[in-house]
Amino acid sequence: KQSIYRFRLAEPGIFLEKYRTYAPAEQAAPGQPRRMVLSRNFRSRREVLDATNFVFGAIMSREMGELDYTEEQQLHPGADYPEAAERETEFHYLSVEDTPEQRFDRAAAEAQFVARRVRRLLEEKYPVRGADGSMRPVEPEDIVILMRSPASRMAVFSAALEREGIPCDGGESEDFFAAMEIAVVLSLLEVVDNPRQDVPLIAVLRSPLVGMSADRLAAIRAVQQEGDYYEALRLEQGEDAQAFLTLLDELRQAGREMSADKLLWYIYDRCHVMAIFGAMEDGAARQARLTALYDYVRRLVQSGRTGLFDCVSHLRQLLEKGDAPVVTAAKAAGGVRIMSVHKSKGLEFPVVILADLCRAFNRQDMDRPVLVHPQLGVGAERVEVERRLRYDTISKTALALVLEREAKAEELRILYVAMTRAQEKLIMVCSRKNPEKHLRELCALTELPVPPEAVSGADCPGDWLVLALMNTYQAADFHRFTGVRPPELREAPAGLTVRLHHIDGEEEEQQEVTAADSAAVETPDVLPDEAALAFAYGHGAATVTPTKVTATQLKGRAIDEEIAEGALPRRWESVPEKPRFLQEKHGLTGAERGTAMHLVMQFLPLDTPPEPAAVRSLAEMLAARRLLAPEQAAALDIPALARFLSSPLAARIRAAKQVWREYRFSLLTDAGLYDPAAAGEEMLLQGVADCVFETADGLTVVDFKTDRVTAEEAPRRAEVYRTQLNAYAGALAKILQKPVTERVLYFFACDREISL
């Protein structure tokens, strides 16, 4: 639940697989892998843990979070805290609403609210447990403001705290290693390790520790223009140069005898580092950073990097990779700390304020042209250079769905880590501009536990908290504000309060909400409008009749689907066909063979000799012209085509005044053709007639069929297509303005012509 470094290639699935496959420790056989769940928490008060358990029991699941938050996963208090009042975990939702006179910035409004809440804690002397176990008033250093990404909010929150007269420290400032005092000390350590490094050596000589001017450095370089700077410094006879060389020799000798942490403290003392930098502007913060650097080097030594070279090279490699270690100096500098959740991991604070919870999740990774997943592989965009188009492929879309779900599971774990940093008091603050519609939508989606689909659809951590807490009596303010209440409400943990604030110039006073108050939120029952309930729409059939159908849509041919262009077909149950590569026998399906036969009939010259060899030669010619695919040409029923060419129907078509093949049509017609109940309404009828020819008496409509029927079965099967042929006849009579005198079905399988 605390694995939050997937972006550094950490893989929670490794632990989850072991968690699911290993037996519980008390049930495992000797030598068998076992699972032991550490569920006791020795950091936080019960109120913090109860709130965390309630929220994650509602929103975390295997489907959305990669782990079911069951009783086994819940945290149980292990720390011994003295009894104290006002320990509630607080959730504050700020509805930021502009007025005609004033427009509010959401981040600024939230920062002001947080600053005022911190000021109240300090003015009330909120009691927290001290190092000796006794209760003492809270101090600014006991309070931390955690955000997912504080860099863009640091200025506005710092300004809000400053307006309230509260000291503030940026905590784990991203520029820790860029601070002058840290850069100078690191350069000095590098020079002590190896003085023949020009850049670190010149940085130390120019720093306040030595104080050489730029002109003096140039004069030393002029002594020997070739070689490294250290060689020129050794040849310089000036008093300042010789004094530094003496000091450097002393430090290098100490470095051979001392561990890296002891050498660093020796440098602090011997070179008066703390005094020099402490006398500068913001000296207390500089001294705090120097102390934090010493603590970090000491941890490196304790991990096995005792020598100066090991420590310096390890730190330099991290900095060059852009993977600077987390070094926190806020405690020494004093003030309320502002830091990211990631850099708070492993730390604990008496009072934690989670802010900026409505910051949207970052989806920029999903917009990359190529997505990579360790198990599913690669998904890329398709680029059509000729058409200048770029669009997602199926593989990329699939990978994006999986990666986004994994990313949101990571965000769930980040929220879990943030909530469990608090020792005594947890305050969560979420703000959104004009949130009424958004809250109403969340209320419609939620229940306990929250459905994984609703959790997946959330776009910020604040939505997850609202989804969980909206189902409680304590959320009566939300129910009243939105006018919507979930069907079932529960009591939230006793130490959890929920507040809704309106930031519109006059913040409303909030009162404690009870279950009875929440029940009163429901809108009083009113008598329904009987006339409205009894109303029956007079055109009900038209609401379920498609606006466009095809006369041949029941045939399922590819050309009919093409002409349909979105027409709504009649629904029938079907079994999905296996992909070609999974089929035991490869080849065309019956429907595909029928399509091939219709393609040949579209291009077949009727004067072709009625011999199989001639028909086969024609099929090869059509395949060569790419009018038929090779598989289609091989699947043709050549004897059946030859029989048709010698049939009376073929002779009548050859003798016709005019012949239309694959005739496409589209016209408005009465919807009663589709559904008698919709008679009088209009719909668009589209289709493709296989063959239409004109005689002296009128038009004859022909439809070719590849159904496998015998001569005896043909008349009965023809009745199935009567409605379809009637639709053809009616449409063609209107379009061509000529009477249809005959409707003919021709079955290739039995060489049978049926007139309807």
Architecture blueprint of SSEs:
Elements: H1 12-21, E1 23-24, E2 34-35, E3 40-41, H2 46-59, E4 76-77, E5 89-96, H3 106-123, E6 127-129, E7 135-137, E8 143-147, H4 154-163, E9 168-169, H5 180-193, H6 198-206, H7 214-223, H8 229-235, H9 239-257, H10 260-270, H11 273-278, H12 283-302, H13 308-320, H14 330-333, E10 336-340, H15 341-344, E11 349-354, E12 370-373, E13 377-384, E14 389-392, H16 394-419, E15 422-433, H17 436-445, H18 452-457, H19 461-469, H20 476-482, E16 496-503, H21 515-519, H22 530-534, H23 540-544, E17 548-550, H24 558-564, H25 590-603, H26 612-624, H27 630-635, H28 638-645, H29 648-654, E18 658-670, E19 682-694, E20 699-705, H30 714-720, H31 722-736, E21 740-747, E22 752-755
Parallel strand pairs: 1-2, 3-4, 5-15, 5-16, 8-10, 8-11, 9-10, 11-15, 17-19, 20-21
Antiparallel strand pairs: 6-7, 12-13, 13-14, 18-19, 19-20, 21-22
How does this structure look, described?
The protein is built from 31 helices and 22 strands. With 756 residues, it is of the alpha/beta class. The strands form six sheets. Strands 9-10-8-11-15-5-16 form a seven-stranded parallel β-sheet. Strands 17, 18, 19, 20, 21 and 22 form a six-stranded mixed β-sheet that branches. A hairpin with a 4-residue loop joins strand 19 and strand 20 (699-705). It is elongated, with a radius of gyration of 40 Å. The relative contact order is 0.09. Mean pLDDT is 85; it is low at 506-525 and 554-572.
